[in-house]
User: What shape does this take?
Amino acid sequence: MSDAEKRTFTDEEALSFHRHPTPGKIAIMATKPMVTQRDLSLAYSPGVAVPVLKIAEDPDLAYDYTSKGNLVAVISNGTAILGLGNLGALASKPVMEGKSVLFKRFADVDSIDIEVSATDPDEIITVVKNIGVTFGGINLEDIKSPECFRIETELQELLDIPVFHDDQHGTAIISAAGLINACHITGRKLDEVKVVLCGAGAAGIATLDLIKSMGVRHENCIAVDNTGVIYRGRTAGMNQWKSAHAVDTDARVLAEALVGADVFLGLSAKGVLTQDMILKMAPNPLIFAMANPDPEILPEEVHAVRPDAIVGTGRSDYPNQVNNVLGFPYIFRGALDVRARRVNMEMKIACANALAQLAREDVPDEVAAAYAGRKLKFGPEYIIPSPFDPRLISYIPPFVAQAAMDTGVARRPIEDMDAYRASLAQRLDPSAAFLQKVQGTVLKSPKKRIVFAEGEEPSVIRAAYAFQQAGLGEAVLVGRDELVLQNMKTAGLDPEEVKLEVVNARTFEHNPAFVEFLYARLARQGYLKRDVQRLINQDRNSFAASMVALGYADGMVTGVTRSYDQALEDVLRVIDPDPNGRIMGMSVVLAKGHTLFVADTSVTEMPDAEDLVEIACGAAEAVKALGYTPRVAFLSYSTFGNPMGQRSEKVIEAVSMLDEMGVDFEYEGEMSPELALEPERRVNYPFMRLTGPANVLIMPAIHSASISTQLVQSLGGATVIGPILLGLEHAVQIAPLSASVSKILHMATLAAYEQDLMEAQA
Assistant: This one.
């Protein structure tokens, strides 16, 4: 496939992307309201004088009263822009803006690009030194070698914040992570591998420095530049940084250096590595052809002559992309969170080891979605994590932060690392806090057996494995043994290692007892015994629900292969409603720092007043059980009778019924969403009983509930969990049709959580 075929955009599309709807890729967003005169007084004069005086007394308080602690400067002079060369400071601005976007997107780090129109290292050092007090860290970018070495070193000595040249260390860290895993796969040890580096520039020298610090022996590394091998005694084209990596060798050109080599690290130019050279390398060679934008050799050219090779490039259209976005956002995230004074070698090594470790874990569905459904698993074509792995934000920074603490460069050590990981997850995923709360309860409780009804599906198998691996409970898969085992392998799991229990309905030893139980329920509903036998043998929901009803499991998850209504109908044949509750769906909406509970979102199409009362009471109880204080708002298109309509009449009647019942939670209605959620808008309704924003929204009908929750999620305004099924005698959760692994896992966790609550209330 040609480069033109691989490219997914035209020049015109790239230009349009950067120009519309607003030129550039970054903007400034205020973090404080500017609505009233008081807001203005606090934000600027006279209120701003108070933190000014405090910072003058103690400069470290700038981290508490300003954005300094989460602000990084991305600085370049444009002398080495990507692989394009010296095009000037202004031409580098699109790249630096892009870097700022990546900081925000992947690690929630605020950054601003600064382009310096100077090529003299002393001028650059002076500029950055004088503005450095503004920032929590400095990211140097696209500054040519060897000037970049001096600039970074001197700035780090002058400034008491991290100074990090990503072109050097970012590439070094990611390639080191790949090297760790490639050695693991091929059975090599770092202190034994023979490495050849082609391209002794900033990234190349930094890579050698890092891998040597990790255990690769100096004498086993040969560096090659455009003059040839860097050997001890060479004088042409040398500098102090190259000299540090000179070795005693008879090799003088790349082809000679590669004879018997285990590893090729390419940071040079297109075409410098040939198939003939690769043939002379050691068995199972490790080839990282990272020249940008075109690698030293294409992976298909390597595999044509060396199918045993593991290949990585800097390109996104090939496996094992050495992508710096895997490093710098999370390094700075960890460094900023402990207010580190620098990024030292130990922090870089910690990052590399963490990336290598993460790549060996099961790859979430979110990653597959980013790669057009391509399933990825640890192996020769997946030795480096995907940049779209959502776990990176909570996985990598703690390693970096811990290394900073261990080496004494952290100003503010983290005391509770588990809480820190939780806070990291919440930065980019608003559902994380809610789900972690649920998971925490489940982990502390006795382990529950959760049956996964659709156990033949690869996504369900992976979710069950994740559920069990996380210690959330025991997972039971319902399905035909051969097909389950086959799909385990398809999902990248070893059946011998996963140790998941598989139950075949036809051969299950308690099959006859299940038939007798279900026949007793259905005999007077038109079912013959053979019909019931068929249901137990062939209908996975009927069988799984019977397991739960008869105590062979504590809860179940289904829904991946059938519609919600069909799955619920199947379950209700076997499991009764809770006599003290009501069957309903409750969705959790997480938006702009708010957690809202919406009901009924899945069961009762057109509830009457009594239905609405039961929905409100059931939702309030569920919300209490989750640790929240319910404030219930009955929503409608009308507000306290204006305008009046059929649906609003039902809501008014429901509120009146609650008035007579004397319930123990706040409620009010009927009202619009803005009145429910924004107390400041209630000035015209002094009689309202809600003491704050509503957090439980009772919808007038299922269509309004379903449409509203799906709409806010589709528009990107919120994250929606659920609907959570409530009101059955046993814990059952129904996942959305074709749900991802993570959603299935969430529903399984909620099933275990619900069973804990049932047992606590019994």
The longest helix spans residues 166-186. Residues 584-727 form a domain with the Rossmann fold fold (CATH 3.40.50.10750). The mean pLDDT is 90.
